Automatic annotation (TrEMBL):
One cellular-component annotation, GO: plasma membrane
UniProt KW keywords: ATP-binding, Cell membrane, Ion transport, Iron, Iron transport, Membrane, Nucleotide-binding, Transport
Subcellular location as annotated: Cell membrane
InterPro entries: AAA+_ATPase (IPR003593), ABC_transporter-like_ATP-bd (IPR003439), ABC_transporter-like_CS (IPR017871), P-loop_NTPase (IPR027417), Siderophore_ABC-ATPase (IPR051535)
Protein name: ABC transporter ATP-binding protein
Originating organism: Lysinibacillus telephonicus
Species classification: Bacteria, Bacillati, Bacillota, Bacilli, Bacillales
Keyword Nucleotide-binding: yes
Amino acid sequence: MVRLFTDDLSISYGEQLIVKNLSVTIPDKKITTIIGSNGCGKSTLLKAITRIIPHQSGLVLLDGKNISKENTKSLAKKMAILPQTPDSTSGLTVSELVSYGRFPYQNGFGRLTKKDYEVVEWALEVTGTADYKHRPVDALSGGQRQRVWIAMALAQETEIIFLDEPTTYLDMAHQLEILELLQKLNHEQERTIIMVLHDLNQAARFADYIIALKDGEIVKAGTCEEVITQDVLRQIFEIDAVIGQDPRTNKPMCITYNLLKGEKQHEKTHIPVYAASSSSY
Protein backbone atom coordinates (compact mmCIF):
# COMPACT_ATOMS: atom_id res chain seq x y z
CA MET A 1 0.00 0.00 0.00
CA VAL A 2 1.24 3.50 -0.88
CA ARG A 3 -0.08 6.59 0.89
CA LEU A 4 2.70 9.09 0.19
CA PHE A 5 4.54 9.84 -3.03
CA THR A 6 5.89 12.69 -5.15
CA ASP A 7 5.36 13.20 -8.86
CA ASP A 8 7.90 15.17 -10.94
CA LEU A 9 8.85 17.25 -7.90
CA SER A 10 11.28 20.13 -8.45
CA ILE A 11 12.61 22.31 -5.61
CA SER A 12 14.79 25.41 -5.86
CA TYR A 13 16.58 27.78 -3.52
CA GLY A 14 16.51 31.06 -5.40
CA GLU A 15 17.66 30.29 -8.93
CA GLN A 16 19.49 27.11 -7.91
CA LEU A 17 17.61 23.91 -8.72
CA ILE A 18 18.21 21.39 -5.92
CA VAL A 19 15.73 18.60 -6.70
CA LYS A 20 14.89 17.82 -10.31
CA ASN A 21 11.64 16.20 -11.46
CA LEU A 22 11.77 13.69 -8.63
CA SER A 23 9.16 10.95 -8.44
CA VAL A 24 9.53 8.89 -5.28
CA THR A 25 7.28 6.45 -3.47
CA ILE A 26 7.38 6.04 0.32
CA PRO A 27 6.37 2.51 1.44
CA ASP A 28 3.68 2.59 4.10
CA LYS A 29 4.42 1.26 7.61
CA LYS A 30 8.10 0.78 6.73
CA ILE A 31 11.37 2.53 7.58
CA THR A 32 12.72 4.50 4.63
CA THR A 33 16.19 6.05 4.73
CA ILE A 34 17.51 8.69 2.35
CA ILE A 35 21.27 8.69 1.74
CA GLY A 36 23.61 10.80 -0.35
CA SER A 37 26.47 13.26 -0.17
CA ASN A 38 26.18 16.71 1.41
CA GLY A 39 24.12 19.09 -0.71
CA CYS A 40 22.46 16.37 -2.79
CA GLY A 41 18.96 17.40 -1.70
CA LYS A 42 18.15 14.98 1.14
CA SER A 43 16.99 17.55 3.71
CA THR A 44 15.44 19.70 0.99
CA LEU A 45 13.28 16.77 -0.09
CA LEU A 46 12.10 16.15 3.48
CA LYS A 47 11.21 19.82 3.96
CA ALA A 48 9.24 19.95 0.71
CA ILE A 49 7.31 16.74 1.41
CA THR A 50 6.33 18.10 4.85
CA ARG A 51 5.53 21.54 3.40
CA ILE A 52 8.17 23.40 5.42
CA ILE A 53 9.43 24.84 2.13
CA PRO A 54 7.53 25.26 -1.16
CA HIS A 55 8.26 23.31 -4.31
CA GLN A 56 8.39 24.91 -7.74
CA SER A 57 6.65 22.20 -9.76
CA GLY A 58 5.23 18.72 -9.42
CA LEU A 59 3.10 17.24 -6.66
CA VAL A 60 3.33 15.74 -3.20
CA LEU A 61 0.36 13.45 -2.66
CA LEU A 62 -0.81 11.98 0.65
CA ASP A 63 -3.84 9.72 0.65
CA GLY A 64 -4.58 10.92 -2.88
CA LYS A 65 -4.61 14.60 -1.90
CA ASN A 66 -2.22 17.39 -2.85
CA ILE A 67 -0.58 18.46 0.43
CA SER A 68 -0.15 22.04 -0.78
CA LYS A 69 -3.94 22.40 -0.59
CA GLU A 70 -4.38 20.66 2.75
CA ASN A 71 -5.33 22.53 5.91
CA THR A 72 -2.26 22.98 8.15
CA LYS A 73 -3.79 21.38 11.23
CA SER A 74 -5.23 18.51 9.20
CA LEU A 75 -1.83 17.83 7.67
CA ALA A 76 -0.17 18.00 11.10
CA LYS A 77 -2.44 15.18 12.26
CA LYS A 78 -1.04 12.97 9.48
CA MET A 79 2.69 13.73 9.48
CA ALA A 80 5.27 15.02 11.96
CA ILE A 81 8.85 16.15 11.34
CA LEU A 82 11.87 16.31 13.60
CA PRO A 83 14.26 18.78 11.94
CA GLN A 84 18.03 18.48 11.98
CA THR A 85 18.34 21.48 14.30
CA PRO A 86 15.18 21.77 16.45
CA ASP A 87 14.09 25.17 17.75
CA SER A 88 15.42 26.50 21.03
CA THR A 89 13.85 24.98 24.14
CA SER A 90 15.08 27.60 26.60
CA GLY A 91 12.97 27.57 29.77
CA LEU A 92 10.79 24.60 28.77
CA THR A 93 10.42 21.43 30.80
CA VAL A 94 10.28 18.05 29.10
CA SER A 95 6.53 17.67 29.54
CA GLU A 96 5.91 21.20 28.26
CA LEU A 97 7.87 20.54 25.09
CA VAL A 98 6.13 17.22 24.46
CA SER A 99 2.75 18.91 24.95
CA TYR A 100 3.51 21.09 21.92
CA GLY A 101 2.80 17.99 19.86
CA ARG A 102 -0.87 18.41 20.77
CA PHE A 103 -1.15 21.74 18.90
CA PRO A 104 -3.09 20.27 15.93
CA TYR A 105 -5.82 19.07 18.31
CA GLN A 106 -6.26 22.23 20.39
CA ASN A 107 -9.17 24.60 20.05
CA GLY A 108 -8.98 28.38 19.88
CA PHE A 109 -8.22 28.70 23.60
CA GLY A 110 -5.09 26.54 23.34
CA ARG A 111 -5.82 24.61 26.53
CA LEU A 112 -4.84 21.00 27.01
CA THR A 113 -7.68 18.56 27.53
CA LYS A 114 -7.66 15.38 29.57
CA LYS A 115 -7.07 13.48 26.33
CA ASP A 116 -4.04 15.70 25.56
CA TYR A 117 -2.48 15.02 28.97
CA GLU A 118 -3.04 11.29 28.53
CA VAL A 119 -1.30 11.30 25.14
CA VAL A 120 1.63 13.31 26.51
CA GLU A 121 2.07 10.81 29.36
CA TRP A 122 1.90 7.94 26.89
CA ALA A 123 4.55 9.53 24.63
CA LEU A 124 6.84 10.06 27.62
CA GLU A 125 6.47 6.44 28.67
CA VAL A 126 7.03 5.01 25.20
CA THR A 127 10.24 7.00 24.70
CA GLY A 128 11.55 6.36 28.22
CA THR A 129 11.54 10.05 29.15
CA ALA A 130 8.86 10.03 31.88
CA ASP A 131 11.42 10.01 34.72
CA TYR A 132 12.65 13.48 33.84
CA LYS A 133 9.44 15.07 32.58
CA HIS A 134 9.75 17.96 35.06
CA ARG A 135 13.38 18.71 34.23
CA PRO A 136 14.41 21.53 31.86
CA VAL A 137 15.09 20.22 28.36
CA ASP A 138 18.34 22.22 28.25
CA ALA A 139 19.65 20.23 31.24
CA LEU A 140 19.45 16.90 29.40
CA SER A 141 22.13 15.05 27.49
CA GLY A 142 22.04 14.98 23.69
CA GLY A 143 20.54 11.50 23.59
CA GLN A 144 17.89 12.38 26.17
CA ARG A 145 16.93 15.56 24.30
CA GLN A 146 16.57 13.62 21.06
CA ARG A 147 14.23 11.14 22.76
CA VAL A 148 12.16 14.08 24.07
CA TRP A 149 11.83 15.52 20.57
CA ILE A 150 10.69 12.12 19.33
CA ALA A 151 8.18 12.04 22.19
CA MET A 152 6.81 15.36 20.97
CA ALA A 153 6.43 13.92 17.48
CA LEU A 154 4.62 10.90 18.93
CA ALA A 155 2.30 13.17 20.92
CA GLN A 156 1.23 14.57 17.57
CA GLU A 157 -0.34 11.13 16.95
CA THR A 158 0.68 10.93 13.31
CA GLU A 159 1.16 7.72 11.42
CA ILE A 160 4.10 9.20 9.46
CA ILE A 161 7.23 10.62 11.10
CA PHE A 162 10.09 12.37 9.30
CA LEU A 163 13.49 12.79 10.93
CA ASP A 164 16.39 14.76 9.47
CA GLU A 165 19.66 13.21 10.68
CA PRO A 166 18.31 12.13 14.10
CA THR A 167 21.69 10.74 15.21
CA THR A 168 23.78 13.86 14.52
CA TYR A 169 26.05 14.94 17.40
CA LEU A 170 25.28 11.76 19.39
CA ASP A 171 27.86 9.20 20.48
CA MET A 172 27.68 5.62 19.18
CA ALA A 173 25.61 4.28 22.08
CA HIS A 174 23.03 7.06 21.87
CA GLN A 175 22.84 6.74 18.09
CA LEU A 176 21.97 3.07 18.44
CA GLU A 177 19.48 3.87 21.20
CA ILE A 178 17.59 6.35 19.01
CA LEU A 179 17.55 4.06 15.96
CA GLU A 180 16.34 1.09 18.01
CA LEU A 181 13.57 3.28 19.43
CA LEU A 182 12.45 4.25 15.92
CA GLN A 183 12.58 0.62 14.85
CA LYS A 184 10.45 -0.33 17.85
CA LEU A 185 7.88 2.34 16.97
CA ASN A 186 7.76 0.99 13.44
CA HIS A 187 7.42 -2.66 14.46
CA GLU A 188 5.03 -2.27 17.40
CA GLN A 189 2.93 0.69 16.28
CA GLU A 190 3.37 0.47 12.49
CA ARG A 191 4.56 4.06 12.24
CA THR A 192 5.93 4.97 8.82
CA ILE A 193 9.43 6.35 9.42
CA ILE A 194 11.34 8.43 6.86
CA MET A 195 14.78 9.66 7.87
CA VAL A 196 17.99 11.08 6.49
CA LEU A 197 21.14 9.27 7.66
CA HIS A 198 24.81 9.78 6.87
CA ASP A 199 26.02 6.46 8.25
CA LEU A 200 25.61 3.87 5.49
CA ASN A 201 25.81 0.89 7.83
CA GLN A 202 23.09 2.34 10.07
CA ALA A 203 20.94 2.90 6.99
CA ALA A 204 21.45 -0.69 5.87
CA ARG A 205 20.81 -2.10 9.34
CA PHE A 206 17.57 -0.27 10.13
CA ALA A 207 15.93 0.59 6.81
CA ASP A 208 13.44 -1.50 4.87
CA TYR A 209 13.80 0.81 1.88
CA ILE A 210 16.67 3.12 0.89
CA ILE A 211 16.64 6.06 -1.52
CA ALA A 212 20.09 7.09 -2.82
CA LEU A 213 20.26 10.65 -4.14
CA LYS A 214 22.86 12.52 -6.15
CA ASP A 215 22.44 16.11 -7.33
CA GLY A 216 18.73 16.01 -6.58
CA GLU A 217 18.05 12.87 -8.58
CA ILE A 218 17.53 9.24 -7.59
CA VAL A 219 20.46 6.99 -8.45
CA LYS A 220 18.87 3.91 -6.90
CA ALA A 221 15.92 3.08 -4.66
CA GLY A 222 15.11 -0.30 -3.16
CA THR A 223 16.09 -2.70 -0.41
CA CYS A 224 19.43 -2.31 1.37
CA GLU A 225 20.77 -5.25 -0.67
CA GLU A 226 19.88 -3.41 -3.87
CA VAL A 227 21.26 -0.01 -2.82
CA ILE A 228 24.29 -0.68 -0.61
CA THR A 229 26.45 -1.98 -3.45
CA GLN A 230 29.87 -1.06 -4.75
CA ASP A 231 28.42 0.39 -7.96
CA VAL A 232 25.79 2.58 -6.28
CA LEU A 233 28.19 3.92 -3.67
CA ARG A 234 30.69 4.68 -6.42
CA GLN A 235 28.06 6.76 -8.20
CA ILE A 236 26.72 8.75 -5.25
CA PHE A 237 29.88 9.20 -3.15
CA GLU A 238 32.69 8.62 -5.69
CA ILE A 239 34.26 5.98 -3.47
CA ASP A 240 35.58 2.50 -4.11
CA ALA A 241 33.82 0.56 -1.35
CA VAL A 242 34.34 -2.97 -0.11
CA ILE A 243 30.94 -4.43 0.77
CA GLY A 244 30.60 -7.30 3.22
CA GLN A 245 27.87 -8.81 5.38
CA ASP A 246 26.98 -7.75 8.90
CA PRO A 247 27.45 -10.91 10.99
CA ARG A 248 24.56 -9.98 13.30
CA THR A 249 21.92 -8.83 10.83
CA ASN A 250 23.13 -10.42 7.56
CA LYS A 251 22.60 -7.02 5.96
CA PRO A 252 25.23 -5.54 3.62
CA MET A 253 27.78 -3.26 5.23
CA CYS A 254 30.57 -1.03 4.00
CA ILE A 255 33.76 -2.50 5.45
CA THR A 256 36.21 0.03 4.02
CA TYR A 257 36.59 2.37 1.05
CA ASN A 258 38.99 4.56 -0.90
CA LEU A 259 38.27 7.96 -2.35
CA LEU A 260 38.30 7.75 -6.12
CA LYS A 261 39.10 11.45 -6.40
CA GLY A 262 41.97 11.04 -3.97
CA GLU A 263 43.44 8.16 -5.95
CA LYS A 264 43.31 10.13 -9.19
CA GLN A 265 44.81 13.20 -7.56
CA HIS A 266 47.59 11.05 -6.04
CA GLU A 267 48.41 9.59 -9.44
CA LYS A 268 48.67 13.07 -10.95
CA THR A 269 50.87 14.61 -8.28
CA HIS A 270 53.15 11.73 -7.32
CA ILE A 271 55.70 12.00 -10.16
CA PRO A 272 56.07 15.84 -10.17
CA VAL A 273 56.59 15.92 -6.39
CA TYR A 274 59.25 13.18 -6.60
CA ALA A 275 61.04 14.90 -9.52
CA ALA A 276 61.12 18.23 -7.69
CA SER A 277 62.59 16.70 -4.54
CA SER A 278 65.26 14.77 -6.45
CA SER A 279 66.38 17.83 -8.41
CA SER A 280 67.26 19.69 -5.21
CA TYR A 281 70.21 17.36 -4.51
